[in-house]
């Protein structure tokens, strides 16, 4: 069997993900593995049509395409995303159609499901037969049991290809919004007062609806919003995954990204991100923006801000994109609101955009941020444990931030709770005490709230 591995690591062969592929090569010598470093070589692939065509020929000759990648900011890296865009932009779907596919990722299990859902959906859109995902923690390969699990996954996948099993598509084809948006003239402008409003967009003129939505939002804030186009920012390249920023938040690039982020975004009160759907995400330019923000490490860089998303495209048909944006905002301790051009009329979209502008200003004025969802709560625990543990000596800037902001909030450190648990676990060995505790559990659970309801 011929397996073509599309390597999504900017580091090429020198990546953790490729060590997993190397192990599979070792365990399955009867199969042919051919790796294409599409993320590492994306600039050449984009400029050299011969190189791109050669990759397509390799895919056409494959029995299985393995999407192999590390997670970068809730998804694949911008370079990998750009390769997927090129496939659709250049009408190269036929090279993938009918091929079996699977995905392999490495991460610390933060948002790994979003990345695999994305690759699954892309595979469906390419007409591929997707057999499943394997999400490894970065160091799983060092554990004998996890190595066995990996080999079992591969064996089951290869067996599916050899038996030519049928695979059902699980994601529906996207239906683009039908609205050709033309903003109306009537508009009651929102007064942002002293609140700084920034509208960040990747508008390149290819989406008329996106251009019109940005214009409407700009006017909604009494023309006091600053509009920044990502194409105008001095960003010399995508994140390289080098982790040099982990020591003191200093990026290896000496371009204008960090100053732009700190001086123009981090100082805003209200941020609106305006973009158009490309395949099952926003553009690779947007992905580059998110990836490069990793110079802040695993700390909330835009905490407490009001965030609006103005999306041109089928956002409500792409759960992995909606989830990624909600998770990004929630984990960053921000309020997020959404408006898309999936509206029936231009007047309806006018009203939705105007209302979002008003609600963002209201939220900024009272300083409201919602309670955290699972994304922020679960993500904090993953980062907390890793930064305190094995990632500490690399991500020293994160460690200092977490320590300073008392984010190493391990429940095991609460001596009062530990003592209470120890005493109560001992006492409940008595049947009489146990019946009292569990028999009155409903009352015990609400008892602490009585003073608040009585006095506040």
From TrEMBL:
The keyword Flavoprotein applies. Residues 1-137 form the Flavodoxin-like fold domain. Residues 204-314 form the NADPH-dependent FMN reductase-like domain. GO terms for molecular function: oxidoreductase activity. Keywords: Flavoprotein, FMN. Its cofactor is FMN; [4Fe-4S] cluster. It comes from the Archaea. Signal peptide: none annotated. Belongs to the SsuE family. Isf subfamily. PANTHER family: NAD(P)H-DEPENDENT FMN-CONTAINING OXIDOREDUCTASE YWQN-RELATED. This is NAD(P)H dehydrogenase (Quinone). It comes from Methanoregula boonei (strain DSM 21154 / JCM 14090 / 6A8).
